[in-house]
Amino acid sequence: MKGDILERTGDQIADIADAARDISAKVKDGWKDTRKDVGRAVRKAKAFTEESVEDAREQIKAHPLTSAAVVAGGAFALGLVTGWLIAHKRK
User: Fold this and answer.
1) How far is CA 61 from CA 66, 67, 73, in A?
2) In sequence order, what are the residues at sequence separation of 6 or more whose Cβ sits closer than 8 angstroms to the Cβ of residue 60?
3) pLDDT tens digits, residue range 24-73?
4) Is the separation of the CB atoms in 67 and 60 below 8 Å?
5) Dist CA 80 CA 87 (whole Å)
6) How many other CB atoms are there within 10 angstroms of residue 65's CB atom?
7) What is the dihedral of CA 42, 61, 80, 89, to 10 degrees?
8) How far apart (Å, rounded) are the C-alpha atoms in residues 61 and 66?
9) What is the Cα–Cα distance from 35 to 41, expressed in whole angstroms?
């Protein structure tokens, strides 16, 4: 009787250990896949950013006055919004 209980308990512990190893292997594989996907996404984002910066440089060189006007207009609009928010926050 005691021997049967100990044997079943041992079998259950072995089954739990096998399940833990399987789960560990699946998590490890998932982690590797996720890491590869994140690395690939970072490389794509870096390439896109570099291309965008280069495009912006080319546009600024081709149209310097227009670029300066756009920046000045954006700064003016940001100043207006900031001033409006500060004024309405005080009320």
Assistant:
1) 10, 9, 19
2) 67
3) 988 988 899 999 999 999 999 999 999 999 999 999 999 999 999 999 99
4) yes
5) 10
6) 7
7) 20
8) 10
9) 10
Q: What would the two tokens of residue 56 be?
A: 């912006």
> How many residues in the chain?
91
CA distance 20 to 27: 10
| Cα Rg, the chain, nearest whole Å | 31
DSSP state of 1: -
The amino acid sitting at 33 is D
Give one DSSP letter per residue of 29-67, joined into a string: HHHHHHHHHHHHHHHHHHHHHHHHHHHHHHHHHH-HHHH
Amino acid at 30: G
Q: What is the pTM of this model?
A: 0.53
Given this model, what pLDDT does residue 15 score?
84
Residue 70 backbone dihedrals phi, psi, to 5 degrees: -65, -45
